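Help needed: design a sequence for this.
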């Protein structure tokens, strides 16, 4: 059951930020990162999304460790889940024009909470492709090894694109980030499902 909870949490996380971001005034999904949804009067929705889904994914990852023999994969997925929780506990600063009244660009000075959020984000976006790379070498099914390897490469490349977009203050920051999150979290949901069914 815990593995199923991890799968459901990965899907739920994406659904929540897509629906919330698509229905929130002044929020532009193509421009603003997912973390910006934790700001403003409706910020509690994304904060809860981070904490609840991150906790469920962590629990699923612990189940991977306990069940074995993929202990390293479970450890990395646990780090990923805890990174999501920390991303919810520590919010990013207002910027990129959101919420209304926030600086139009990215300020040079950041709060302590924002700096911790950045570290947590780095942990999240590095640990997931690492988990996919580990899966490419440790899963039993050839199809899963090949798929996981392709996902790892795609996520690492996407992370690089997101980093460059952030440095350039691109108007497509949110779009590029979503191009990493949606397939990455989708792979994670499929992985938990396959592990629960014994198909990997």
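Sure. Designed sequence:
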């Amino acid at each position: 059951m815990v593995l199923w909870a991890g799968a459901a949490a990965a899907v739920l996380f994406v659904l929540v930020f897509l629906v919330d971001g698509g229905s929130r005034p002044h929020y532009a999904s193509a421009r603003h990162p997912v973390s910006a949804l934790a700001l403003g009067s409706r910020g509690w929705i994304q904060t809860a999304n981070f904490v609840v889904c991150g906790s469920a994914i962590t629990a699923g990852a612990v189940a991977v460790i306990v069940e074995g023999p993929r202990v390293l994969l479970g450890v990395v997925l646990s780090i990923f889940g805890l990174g999501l929780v920390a991303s919810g506990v520590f919010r990013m600063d207002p910027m990129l024009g959101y919420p209304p009244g926030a600086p139009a660009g990215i300020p040079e000075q950041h709060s302590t909470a924002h700096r911790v959020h950045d570290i947590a984000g780095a942990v999240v976006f590095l640990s997931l492709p690492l988990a996919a790379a580990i899966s490419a070498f440790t899963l039993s099914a050839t199809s899963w090894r090949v798929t996981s390897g392709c996902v790892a490469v795609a996520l690492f490349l996407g992370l690089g694109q997101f980093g460059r977009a952030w440095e350039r203050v691109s108007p497509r920051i949110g779009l590029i980030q979503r191009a990493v999150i949606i397939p990455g979290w989708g792979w994670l949901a499929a992985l938990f499902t396959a592990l629960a069914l014994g198909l990997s």
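The chain has one domain: 2-17+27-197.
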